[in-house]
Amino acid sequence: MIPNEKNFCGGAYRDWLEVYLTGACNGNCSWCVDKQGFKPKYQASVHDMVLAILDTGTKNVILLGGEPTLYHDIKYIIDIVNAHGVKVYLTTNGSRLTPGFVVSELRNLTGINISIHSYSLMENYRQTRVEINYEDLGKSVEELHRKGVKVRFNCNCIKGFIDSRERILEYIKFAKWAGADSVRFAELKNDRDEFVNLSELLDINIDNPFTQGCNHNIVISDMPVNIRLMCGFQTPNRPKPKNPPTVENKQILYYNGQIYNGWQEKGDKMEDQIKEILNKVATGELTQVEGLALIKELGVLDEEIPVPSSSGYCAY
User: Fold this and answer.
1) Does position 279 have pLDDT exceeding 90, yes or no?
2) Which CATH number applies to 16-262: 3.20.20.70, 3.60.130.10, 3.40.50.720, 3.30.1120.10?
3) Where does the chain show beta strands of DSSP type E?
């Protein structure tokens, strides 16, 4: 079973580098896919982060988190990387957006994704605990447009919130009011109970996003809309593809300055190494004294290490 060539796993977006700028976040989304994500203990300097980005030779960079606007040197990264001819994009929960913040910190962006999951900002707060002011939002979008920045609103479709055609249309009215250039509606990842099937809801007629495509561009009420579907590797609500080919994960730059193959999850290096030592003691390869000494030495190691995402195939 071969992935669609327009999917992330099918080779699309190879000229993009995703940058996990910070693990800090001021929101509390129940569906957050980063809660089990690997968070390095070491924070590389902003200088080293810029060098790591430029060394990849990428054409496009997207800054992610956590909440990337909490990163103290975000302006420096955007300005320097942009000055080297790289297009810089940002995904934010919108909590820090004000016209002044746009002017001082985000003036050299190419595009911004503002994640708002309801046309009611009070309802969005109930879901995310992120406070957004209507006036600041509208004026910030105006200021972003003055700087030539494309603005997209991202909305996770959640049962009980944006889960019908009527609510889709209400969200688009809200996005138009705020001045967004486009909207993305996305299905929830790894969530059976709150999952909204956008293929059925919007009559896209996609049964298997793995082969038929997980990204689809349509127009609703004169608004350009991207639909993000989840395949069976990302949701239990669709069958998992059989015998998929091995694919090379996209490179992700983490805030420790290291590049990993795909998004990482928390790992427990100590537990694995202790098991290995105990097995050697059990088989006689090590004495009990030798095994105990090795276990004591593990105290100098970090318990948390990166391991490939348990989604098994696609981290998006």
Assistant:
1) no
2) 3.20.20.70
3) 16-20, 60-64, 87-92, 111-115, 150-156, 182-186, 215-220, 223-228, 251-254, 259-261, 264-268, 304-308
